[in-house]
Amino acid sequence: MKTACSYATTYAASLADPAAFWLAQAQLLQWHTPPGEAIIQDANGFYRWFNQGTLNTSYLCLDYQVQEGRGPQPALIYDSPVTSTQRTYTYSELLEMTARFAGGLRKLGVALGDRVIIYMPNLPEAVVAMLACARIGAVHSVVFGGFAPHELAVRIDDARPRAIVCASGGMEFDRVIPYKPLVDEALALATHQPAHVVVLQRDFVTAELQPKRDVDYQELLRAAPVAAVPVPATHPLYILYTSGTTGRPKGVVRDHGGHAVALLFSMRTVYGLAPGETMFAGSDIGWAVGHSYIVYGPLLQGCTSVLFEGKPVRTPNAGTFWRLIEQHQVNVVFTAPTAIRAIKKEDPEGLLARPYDLSSLRQLFLAGERCDPATYTWAGQLLGVPVVDHWWQTESGWPMLATLVGLEEMPPPRAGSAGFPVPGYDIQILDEEGLPVPPGVTGLVAVRLPLPPGCFPTLWNDDARFRESYLQPFPGYYFSGDGGYRDADGYCYIMGRVDDVINVAGHRLSTGEMEEILAAHPAVAECAVLGIVDALRGQVPIGLVVLKDGHVAGEESLERELVSRVRALIGALACFRAVLVVKRLPKTRSGKILRKTLRQLADGEDFLLPATIDDPTILDEIGADFRRRAIGLAFERTA
């Protein structure tokens, strides 16, 4: 689906008069009270969109669609090869379940503004819980099911939820992971204690329920249905935690009004999807992609969304995505480059795609990390459709750079590039002084304020950190934390993080948090954790530790212990498996560890010896062993 507008015209209009542009887009929604003005600055100086309007996201996703005649249309297709389950939910069915579950939450005392943590895999019941929270004005926070109890406890204490909704367990390939014991352990670690834990009992694992506190999920579905509650456009819809450089997660806040306007706009212009068409986002609902393009975006546009519980490989094989496309007549696929690399690794010739009719597919969208040109080219040749690498962040909630397939006269995608600025985003490449750099020169990626609707207005209960992390580096801009450049034709390229957050298979993880865990070991004097290049996952962490004087420890046993600590506190998704003991770490004269130089050394890149290095001989001292270990680590990942 394409609109009659060209990209250049639309983008120029969005920057020339943002208020008028986004008010026009807002008129496409069904408001309870239409907004009289587009944007204001609040008492903190932060920008807020549509503050005079009232609406409800759950109503827009469900009630409105049924009123428009889409009641019998599939809203959600649940496809779970790990449990051999498939089920289709129409808009009418999803509305009924959501209204009843919302009534059940209300009976438990969940009220307007209360928080609810959802700790579940990709299940229809998790989507219902999200929409039910939105329906009564509660604020949901979905926590990825693979997170360790410590991480869940941190989020419990920060969000202070009235209730937790969890599944009894999840399935990873042929392995059952009980979730309820993880929740119980997290609650034992947390200071805040929610009033209730709602448990969805799954067929393959039964959770033990604690009397009075724990409630069966099905009981809430038997409650009387409740209507959607109109809330101010600036009312929080959800909190989504993303890694911070200090190890303390940042709670990104998303509001009802700007979020709905932005996602509806993106479904039409970025992804080119019309009502009734089908989108498959190969992500987890615990990540920003799952929120925006499994749940809210497709339902706001009246599309069908495929909810997939599985992996791109081994469920049962590397042809799973291609089966989904044929069986569910998918028009647009959105996944991470890691998924495509995993498929390519197991099926390099693409033989598993041949049995399937992929003619329904129009585009493959990739995001979450930079897509290398080899993977980009392989996917395009295999599928015979445009591959669109685009860029956005948890903080933005929707794309900032893309090839907008729903607009006319859009330059085609280009390998290695994330495309062009999406309307509403005035993206600049700056030097460290905040001045624009010429085309072809790598700099720091920033967005001129105000950010468009849909972006986070602040962090949960932490305005000071929001200001310090994102606004202070370049006054008048949002600092993305990424580096990149723009070529002579205007294509933008994102090269990766400039802080210590690394991207492991699309998961943003803090090396600072891993360092805190290593440093807590009684044998460790100091340490550094780096993200090194990995052909499959983009990056994987490797640790370097300096032992305390006089401490004698077997390096292999110490490595096993440190790896076990990181996996216990962060989770297996960190892919942390290697620690190298060194005599000392390279530092500047001011005491800063030269992490960038170490990364370049590990990845085999050429580098200039930093002028500020305290002792140049240290690189020779650790270089050979470190490089050899890094190569071995990368080999283990791809073997």
Can you characterise this structure?
The chain has 639 residues and is an alpha/beta fold. The protein has a domain at 501-638: GMP Synthetase, Chain A, domain 3 (2-Layer Sandwich), CATH 3.30.300.30. Helices cover 33% and strands 23% of the residues. It has 18 helices and 31 strands. Strands 5-4-17-16-18-19-20 form a seven-stranded mixed sheet, with helices on both faces. The longest helix has 22 residues, at 617-638. Residues 634-639 have low confidence and may be disordered.
Entry keywords:
5-stranded parallel β-sheet, 639 residues, 33% helix, 23% strand, GMP Synthetase, Chain A, domain 3, 7-stranded mixed β-sheet, globular, disordered C terminus, 18 helices, alpha/beta
Nearest-integer average pLDDT? 91
Number of helices: 18
CATH homologous superfamily title of the domain at 501-638: ANL, C-terminal domain
**CATH class label of the domain at 501-638:** Alpha Beta
In whole angstroms, how far apart are the ends? Answer: 42 Å
